[in-house]
Predict the structure.
Amino acid sequence: MKNKRQLLFRVGAILIILAICAVMFVIGRGHTVYFDNKETSYNGQTIEPFYKVTVTVGNQKPSKLSKGDRGMADIMGQKLTMTLEITDKEGDQPHAHKVSMSVPYNMDGIMINIPALMQGLPQDAYMSEFIIETPDTGSTDEEIVTDEFDMGGDM
Amino acid sequence: MNKNTNKKASPNLFNLVQRFSVPLMFILICAVCIPLSGLSANMLINEIVTRMGRNAFLILSLLIPIMAGMGLNFGMTLGAMAAEIALIFVSDWQIVGIPGMVLAAFISIPISVLLGIFCGKILNEAKGREMITSYIMSFFINGIYQLVVLYLMGSVIPIKHGSIKLPRGYGIRNTVSLLSMRQKLDNLLAIQVAGVKIPVLTFIIIALLCLFIVWFSKTKLGQDMRAVGQDMEVARDAGINVERTRIISIVMSTVLAGFGMIIYLQNMGNIATYSAHSQIGMFCIAALLVGGASVDRASIGNVFLGVILFHTMFIVAPKAGAAITGDSMIGEYFRVFVSYAVITLALVMYETNKRRAKSAAGQQLQAAQDAEEAAGKEKA
């Protein structure tokens, strides 16, 4: 009886740990979001960029994007909430929008085209994966440094 | 009577000075080096507070094996390696911030437990020579760690990101960036007091570990560890499973060292994949000894005093060296030399004290035998 209860506690503890890990996987997933204020086309329709867009994500430094510019922000979790301050044409008054959307789990880098987003087009029109190419260093490999007997570093 | 008191007082003072000779020496070194370094009080305190948050948890993980009489656990590097492996995975999966740290902590637990059990079993086969055995074991496991990280990761164990992998397509780079979790724990709830940043949450976690150690030492298992630490044979006669108790103490130390390494690395913001763990054991043990601990006796107070003194020396030595000799490398060499010297001194003092205690016990026994013989003769 005691052994059975002990086993139950152990299984319960493992399940709780696994549940916490699963939660961490979801809430801790990091993404880098790139914002484009560039011309794009969708189904033969050309979407013009704005004169100026200021994108603010959380407490991060706002990205001020002129025509053809790209900005970026790091987010954690599966939901992106940003404030867009858009100036349509030179001399116009900027108008602010708060936009929230969920982001795909499997994408590390997510590119969002702001003009396409503001046109209300479907997700595939304004969102795509941004893959960073690791620079090819040729055949030269990194030299591995191990220092078992050294204590020369700082702590 | 007065003479008697004086006679008693002087050896006590001598014993006290002898016992705290290392901290006293460090207080002297710091007292000389601090003015020479020219560092402002604010900067110095800031650095010490940062380093306390960074290292205290790791050093606290050494206390439990000392309680169980297994000396200074050089095998804590095993936990550090487990934490590094966990952090490499978490970086590759792009889990960032505090959730990334929590996940890394959970992933490190099974690795630390397995390594701890292995280490504990080996140490049970080498009773009385735990420190040297755990030291050599850390080299052995380091070889396996290098095999896993350098050859299996990326080829057998899936690693996705090119920024972590070596250009050849497998193996992990010399440095893995932890920028996405850099000082996230330290900055959460951090406060500024007179220009000094206090990482409150990190200190809360350290305080919780201190409370856990205090509580644990009063539990049945904690008392068993103390008993095993004092005399294994007596503990065995009292019905304590000595081998199991010793393994548990090493497993706990390894798991805690893993957590400590995660706290340490989030503060640094990167992993020196092949060297971070090899240095950590030495530095932590040196800091604990500087705080006045010995191979068979250590307390939470020793941890904090050690961090303050050892790291003050670490901060001021290069600047003081530059001020004295014009070359900051002298200070660098000095602090490395002192770190090793402190460990050597502590080991020598431990052996000397042990021999002295043994000889005193022998003398007492001899005196008792002589007295018995004399009494026997008188009767006859």
In short: Chain B has one domain: 38-334. The interface with chain A takes residues 51, 54-55, 93-100, 102-103, 106-107, 109, 139, 142, 146, 150, 161-163, 166-168, 171, 173-174, 180, 272, 274-275, 278-280, 282-283, 311, 314, 332, 336, 339-340 of chain B (CB under 8 Å). Residues 71 and 177 of chain B are 34 Å apart (CA to CA).
